[in-house]
Each structure stands twice: as C-alpha cells, then as structure tokens.
Design brief:
The protein folds into two domains: 216 residues, 3-Layer(aba) Sandwich (Rossmann fold), CATH 3.40.50.150; 103 residues, Rossmann fold (3-Layer(aba) Sandwich), CATH 3.40.50.720. The protein contains 13 helices and 17 strands. The termini are far apart. Strands 6-5-4-7-8-11-10 form a seven-stranded mixed sheet, with helices on both faces. Strands 14-13-12-15-16-17 form a six-stranded mixed sheet, with no helix packed on it. It is of the alpha/beta class. Strand 2 and strand 3 form a beta hairpin.
Length: 406
C-alpha cells in the first residue's frame, strides 16, 4: 500500500505480514473441498499519521452479493441492537428517515421499526436481504455509492440518520463511500459508525480481526481526519467494550450544522495518542506478541492432542478462520468446527478445510476441548454450553492470551 485510505497520507507502515489467505468468509462447499481456493496476501499496515490499520482491498468483485454472516445468531447482538435502536430514536427528529448501510438480516432496523421509525436498509447480499424482509424491513439490494445515494434521496428524501454497523471496515474506497453519505445525509443529519476500535485490537492482541473483508480497523483519529475531507466532524463517541472485542459508536455531523463535539470526544483522542497509536514501536511490539501467542497456542494444542483428546472449534467465523489459518491449525488439530449459523453447516473452513457442523454436534461427538474461535462471545457461549463443562469439557480461549478453562 502506498497511501492511507482515510487521511491519504503516504506510505503506511507494514507491521504484520500474515501470509496468503483465501477470504475468511469464503467457505468451501463439500463438492469443492479438494479444489484450490483463490488466496491473496494479507499484509497489515498502519498509517502513522491517523492510526488507521489497513490492508489492501483484494476481495473479489461482488463478493458481498452472497454473504454468510448474520448477527441474529448471537443473543448478545439482539440486546445490543435493541439498545442501539433506542439510541437512534433519541437522536432522530420526527419522521426522519433512518438508513442502515449493510443492514444484513435487518436486526437493527426491525428494532427501529418497533419504535415507529421510518427505515430503509441497503445491502448488496440478496440472500441476506430476504431474511431482513421477513422481519418487515424494506431493503434496497445494492452497494452504497453516490449513484445509490442519489436514487434513495430522490425517492425517499434525505436521511436524518445514516448508520453503519460493522460495515464501514469493509469499505475499500472510503472517500467514495463518504461522498455518498454527504449526498444522502440531511443538512442537520447524523452519520453513526459502529466498528471495532483499533486501540482495543492492539491492546488485546486481536490480530484475528484483520482479514480480507475487514480492510480497515479504525482509530477515532482516523475517522476524524476522514470526516474533515467532507466538511464533517466527530461530535460524540460511545465505548462498547462488550461488542466484537471492543468497539466504538461514533457520531459524525456536518460542521455547517453547528453541532459541537461532546466532552467525550477529546479524551478519547488523547487516549489514543497516549497509547502510542501513531508510534511505529507500538505495532512492532504487537507483532512480536502475536508470534509468541501463536507458539503458545500450538504448544497447548500439541500437548492436548498428544493425550489423545478430541478437539472442536466453536465458531466458523471470519476472525476464527484468520486465526487458524495464520497459526497453521488444520485438521491435525481440529476434529470439526461448530457454528449456530445454518448457512455454514455442511461447509468447510477456508484454507484449513475443517468440516463445519451444527452446535448439536457437541452433544453427539463429545469433544474434550472446545477452542473458542468466537472468543468475543465467550461469556454467552459458556452459559449455553454449561452441560459440556459439567461433563468435564474444557474451553480453550485463544485471545488475548491462550488459557484453558472449565
């Protein structure tokens, strides 16, 4: 990479080359398990001017037209989006249009509809859009760009609220996306971005959140600098420590609207500077920690396998696939993976080709150890799998440092 996609500074710093990976959500059908997969280099860079962690955008064209991740599989996300919908209701003026970019299965907008808000979802994945429509959510199946923004504005008027949850980090051309936001957003409207925060990624060793679909991991400073290119600024931030390993909800408004930053914004910016988010040494130390925890995790799994124990992985997630691919954890270690998402059942993990089964396989196969690849939902999973633990099963949580629990 030669330029930061947020602030446009030159020559981001390469700090963690992760090797070649197939896209982390590119699961393999049973009939294709013996065929080669396309793979691309996964090299993590950071802009030392704004703290944006980024990789080159190499996802195949129209990859998101058929997508497999849905938030509804986690009870945590139901509660989270219920609270978020109420927060949107506090911000939105009467009869304002609420547009969710990357609305997925409509979980957030369904909650907004229950509150009487006027909503529209935009998502390129036709298969997922049907799930949203089944919840009563209106969805435009398309990518969000200036053409789409003008179409929506002409048909439905300007948006009082534009929201994107865990989607902004999928956008390769952030400036084109922001052009579309500027076209659709009302003069006094609010753009709300919810994404994992780069500071927590670094502090908690969350390298597994770096994968081809997640082309960016944002600092607050990177969003502030990006917004400034479009006559906007950050006016508020909320910390979401329980979501995806540590996320932030950022509110952006036009400078011309007169909206001023709350007293929460500057302390968060200062916090990033104090954490060394613009310092090369911060990222070198992170890379060293990732290598060390990989050695420790492989050592633990080698010892467990040496004892003849059966090992399953919980969560055929993108971040889990990144972790097992980089650390070389394939079918020599895992007997199978489980996931609650029925769209993934009968498939195989990318790169490592581990079979993915329904969660019921835990009771059928009786693994001795479950590796929490979806470690960011561990508290919820641990409660759901209390029977597994009661029978002597152990949980291996890989991050922020590997630990074995029962």
């Amino acid at each position: 990479m030669t330029q930061c996609r947020a602030c446009l500074a030159r020559d981001p710093y390469l700090f963690l080359p992760l090797g070649n990976h197939a896209p982390a959500q590119m699961l393999i059908k049973a009939e294709d398990v013996g065929a080669d997969q396309p793979s691309f280099s996964l090299d993590a860079y950071v802009c030392l001017q704004c703290g944006l962690i980024q990789i080159a955008d190499q996802v195949p064209a129209d990859f998101f037209r058929h997508y497999l991740y849905v938030p509804s599989g986690a009870a945590t996300m139901h509660d989270h989006f219920d609270g978020f919908a109420h927060r949107i209701g506090e911000v939105a003026v009467r009869d304002a249009l609420v547009v969710d970019i990357g609305c997925n299965d409509g979980l957030l907008l369904a909650k907004c509809n229950e509150l009487g808000l006027r909503t529209l979802g935009i998502d390129p994945a036709a298969n997922i859009a049907e799930l949203a429509r089944a919840k009563g959510v209106e969805v435009l199946v398309d990518y969000f760009d200036p053409v789409t923004a003008l179409r929506v504005r002409n048909e439905s008027g300007p948006a009082g609220i534009i929201v994107t949850t865990n989607t902004f980090n999928h956008i390769g051309d952030l400036h084109r996306f922001m052009q579309a936001v500027a076209l659709l957003l009302a003069d006094d409207g609010t753009f709300v971005i919810e994404v994992p925060r780069a500071k927590e990624l670094i502090e908690n060793n969350e390298f597994d959140n770096i994968y081809h679909e997640h082309v960016s991991s944002f600092s607050l400073l990177s969003i502030e600098k990006l917004a400034s290119h479009f006559g906007m600024r950050v006016t508020d931030i909320e910390h979401l420590p329980a979501i995806h390993g540590g996320s932030m909800r950022v509110f952006v408004s036009r400078i011309s609207s007169g909206a001023l930053p709350t007293d929460r914004v500057q302390p968060r910016l200062d916090e990033e500077m104090a954490a060394g988010m613009l310092d090369k040494e911060t990222y070198d130390a992170f890379a060293q920690r990732v290598h060390a925890l990989g050695d420790r995790l492989r050592g633990m799994l080698d010892e467990l396998k040496g004892r003849g124990l059966k090992i399953a992985g919980y969560g055929a997630s993108a971040r889990g696939n990144t972790l097992i691919t980089y650390f070389g954890l394939d079918r020599r270690y895992f007997d199978f993976l489980v996931d609650k998402n029925p769209l993934k059942h009968g498939m195989f993990s990318p790169n490592t080709r581990i079979p993915i089964r329904d969660v019921s396989a835990i009771g059928e196969e009786h693994p001795d150890v479950m590796v929490m690849l979806a470690w960011n939902f561990f508290d919820e999973i641990r409660q759901q799998q209390s029977g597994f633990a009661a029978k002597g099963g152990q949980f291996l949580v890989p991050l922020p440092t590997p630990r074995l629990l029962n």
